[in-house]
């Protein structure tokens, strides 16, 4: 499956309904991480109905215990194409016996891609097709190649917010034994270095106000829309990894033991029967 214009071509796969490729045909630059190294086998999964996982890896609904893999259901599922046009493609997953063993709610999940010149707009529609309130959260996990060009290094790149940000950074214990701390930081133009991320496992900011975050090298980069998402995560696994993930989230994993039930975890949204949650973001390459 692909979308293509004179300059750019994108391809997609049914696994997770993910983008596989965002290629500049003129320069030959591939903007998306291909999941082709030992550092991470993922590419850009959709995170639904949880981000990360619960503290114990399980949760309870109506007295019954359930469990999902890290980041929920979608990234492991096969979606099917329900619409393909010249500039748009839509893939879908509806609940089935396999999903209900992990997440006992009827739903329909759609992801649509629209390519216009050098910009792809990705829109998500999540519908509660059941008769009970549906607790969920949602996030994105796109990986971008960094560096993008031969002769460049990870450290040649900057992350640039469209506004100066005065935000809380969530600092958490990887062993989940200590409470999360919130550190007030001011950021706008960040010169990349691996340790800035790996020393804290993942950089998580709360309530960014910028419309965009741009990953910029010497001449090329990507501009990611982040407006409307309460959390923003920035991740690469360790020194030498040739990519960085820019992740807008509505919620987050349990970073320590949580007393609230699955309906009331921080970042959880409740979708009423028959209602649809819609969100979007965009990736613009240059």
Could you describe the 3D structure shown?
- The protein is mainly beta.
- Helices cover 3% and strands 45% of the residues.
- It has two helices and 22 strands.
- The protein has helices spanning 97-100, 194-198, and strands at residues 2-4, 8-12, 19-24, 46-47, 58-61, 64-67, 80-84, 88-94, 107-116, 119-128, 134-136, 139-140, 143-145, 158-171, 181-191, 203-206, 212-216, 221-225, 231-235, 243-249, 269-271, 276-285.
- The strands form five sheets. Strands 7, 8, 9, 10, 13, 14, 15, 16, 17, 18, 19, 20 and 22 form a 13-stranded antiparallel β-sheet that branches.
- A hairpin with a 7-residue loop joins strand 19 (231-235) and strand 20.
- The protein is globular and about 55 Å long.
- The chain starts with a strand and ends with a strand.
- The model has no long low-confidence stretch (mean pLDDT 97).
Protein traits:
single chain; 286 residues; mainly beta; 13-stranded antiparallel sheet; three-stranded antiparallel sheet; 2 helices; globular
């Amino acid at each position: 499956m692909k979308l293509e214009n004179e300059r750019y071509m994108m391809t997609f796969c049914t696994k997770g309904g993910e983008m596989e490729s965002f290629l500049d045909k003129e320069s030959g630059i591939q903007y998306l991480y291909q999941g082709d190294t030992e550092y991470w086998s993922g590419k850009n999964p959709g995170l639904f109905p949880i981000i990360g996982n619960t503290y114990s890896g399980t949760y309870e609904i109506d007295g019954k215990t359930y469990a999902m893999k890290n980041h929920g259901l979608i990234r492991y599922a096969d979606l099917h194409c329900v619409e393909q046009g010249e500039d748009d493609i839509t893939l879908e997953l509806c609940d089935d016996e396999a999903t209900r063993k992990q997440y006992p709610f009827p739903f329909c999940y759609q992801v649509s891609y629209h390519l216009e010149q050098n910009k792809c707009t990705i829109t998500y529609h999540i519908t509660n097709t059941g008769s009970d309130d549906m607790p969920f959260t949602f996030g994105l996990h796109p990986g971008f190649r960094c560096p993008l060009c031969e002769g460049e290094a990870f450290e040649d790149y900057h992350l640039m917010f469209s506004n100066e940000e005065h935000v809380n950074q969530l600092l958490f214990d990887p062993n989940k034994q200590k409470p999360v701390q919130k550190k007030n930081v001011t950021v706008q133009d960040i010169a990349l270095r691996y340790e800035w991320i790996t020393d804290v496992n993942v950089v998580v900011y709360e309530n960014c106000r910028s419309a965009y975050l741009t990953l910029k090298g010497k001449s090329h980069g990507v501009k990611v829309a982040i407006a409307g998402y309460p959390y923003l995560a920035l991740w690469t696994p360790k020194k030498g990894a040739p990519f960085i993930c820019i992740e807008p989230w509505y919620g987050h994993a349990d970073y320590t033991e949580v007393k609230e039930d699955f309906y009331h975890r921080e970042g959880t949204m409740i979708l009423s029967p028959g209602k649809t949650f819609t969100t979007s973001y965009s990736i613009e390459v240059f």
